[in-house]
Amino acid sequence: MWYPNIVPTRRIRISIMIFLISCFFIISPLVILYTAGYRYDRDTHRIKETGVITIDVEPRDAVVSLNDVVIDQRLPIHLQNRAPGIYKLAVSREGYIPWSMPIEVTSKQTTYINNTSLYKDVLPTFEYSTPKEKISTFLSADAQFVVTSLQKEGTLKELLLYDITKDEETIVWRGSSLLPLELSWSPYAPIFKFFVTRENETIVEIIDARAPTVVATYITDTSMHDMQWSEARKDTLYAQSGDILYALAGGSRNPLEAVTSSYHWYVDNAQDIWTIDPTGTVFKNYEQVQSFDSIHDTYTIVGVTERYVLIKTPQQEIKILWLDSGKSTTLAADNVFRMQDPDEPPGWIVWSPWEIYKLDDSGTQTLITRTNKVLYDVEWAPVYKSLIFVFEGGSIVGFHPQYRTSQLLFEHANAWVNDISVNPKSTYILFQSSLNNKEGIYKREL
Fold first, then answer.
1. How many folded domains does the chain comprise?
2. How far is CA 81 from CA 29, 52, 70, 187, 359, in A?
3. Angle of CA points 231, 223, 284, to nearest 5°
4. Is there a domain that residue 148 lies in?
5. 3-state SS assignment for residue 100
6. pLDDT tens-digit profile of 331-347?
7. How many CB atoms lie within 10 A of CB 175?
């Protein structure tokens, strides 16, 4: 093969060497910066260090995209060296409601998207038709049982228990009562109580829905309406009769302490008894703890922690009485329930028709969100780490507090929704409604 006889001059050789050396000193730092996670920001014309995005949601075979570009990876996804800025994250899967939100990537930080799942895109199913002669219907807190109070002839009443899981209906009580059976479920276990009113006595009946053939009966005076379900002893109901506080469980009635009938009381998980006298003085087992001003005499003690006493007033307010300072904080809300999620800090959800707060046992208060629609009910879905909202008019919405995103789960023209409850494993919700002239209990898979 013939090669041209070209010999570069010394000037050309020096020029090539200078060019290559210049390229080395220019390109090498750029390569090093790039591999170290730095990127050029066209908006600010500066070099910034990149961030990381970690995405881990359910179901694991969902499709994830950033800025409308599908990421060809299976969840969980770990994306390194992402330029700082705002990205549009979208997660979708057939049979589920798509979920999207803007996320921000910052330099030298990891943006986590986890602790959430897609909701199934399904319609509610009709599970149970409530009898026409019903007085009222009550759903258990675990969304497994339904109790229906029926009016029979004269003063005759009847209670029907329906098991959602087994699809079984059972008559658990039948008898005479002058008044409708005042019934309530424990928020901590599938156990319910009800009052039977007769001419000379009032009877408190307690039934465990898991063993409905066993009915615990307690005959008491007509004043035993100040009661509290135990969070720690889930089968126990505390009740005051006269000046004695009792623990009702397993058919036994065990006296705890004598209490002043005009004092409001609360039994904590250690079975210490808290009371507040008419002057606003707080006692623990009759030892003074703190004094407060301006406490209405018709309040209810909702809960007690090491830092505060939580009370509900008739002015549609929740007051936090701080035990260390003697001061109080008022939340404009009249609904409260205990958070039962081992993965979340223990505390309370406090809500009004317009606002929802989180109050930790440590005393941390967080305004979760405000709404422009009237709230009818609020529940917590542990698996989804989200709140379930029921709005006036019957729409049901899943709201994720961490990401502040909402998804419509149910809406039907001219439908109403009552007594919603969430399965502890967040697999479904139950609610009472009437759709297409079919009134009863509906189930919506999550």
1. 2
2. 17, 6, 17, 47, 37
3. 45
4. yes
5. strand
6. 989 899 999 888 889 99
7. 15
